[in-house]
Specification:
Elements lengths: L9 H4 L3 H24 L1 H34 L1 H5 L1 E3 L2 E2 H50 L1
Antiparallel strand pairs: 1-2
Length: 140
């Protein structure tokens, strides 16, 4: 059973494992060359660069905000106990801010991936599958 969909993984789906394993073993060196070629390509490097340009600052900012919250809660309990409105204090507002930040970061990551990386990554995936198909047909 062969699908042209590059996202289909016959081994993970459990279909035709012996056929796929035999084909994989026969074409392993050639397939590895295809993936190394794609990894060295400018398009792949651009996708990885876009990923890093978003993720690294986001992780640093989020972890800084989290550590600041924890350190402030332990080092300055008087500040965190200050009332903001009624029974709501600074610690409760900052704690809710942690949840809000998590949801905002998740939304921002998904949006960034959709707008800046998904299309380029899918094109790379199709290119990789096409090169692998050509390599397999040339090896046969």
């Amino acid at each position: 059973m062969r699908y042209d969909d590059p996202w289909y993984d016959a081994i993970a789906a459990g279909w035709g494992e012996s056929d796929v394993a035999h084909a994989r073993d026969a074409a392993a060196p050639a397939a590895a060359d295809v993936y190394l070629e794609v990894q060295r390509s400018a398009a792949f490097q651009e996708v990885r660069s876009r990923y890093r340009r978003f993720v690294v600052p986001a992780v640093v900012l989020f972890l800084s905000w989290y550590v600041a919250y924890v350190v402030t809660a332990t080092a300055a309990p008087g500040l965190m106990a200050r009332p903001v409105a009624g029974a709501v204090n600074v610690a409760m507002v900052a704690g809710l801010g942690q949840f809000l930040t998590t949801f905002l970061l998740t939304w921002a990551y998904a949006r960034h991936a959709r707008l800046r990386r998904d299309r380029a990554a899918l094109e790379l995936r199709w290119t990789t599958q096409e090169l692998a198909r050509v390599t397999r047909s040339g090896a046969s």
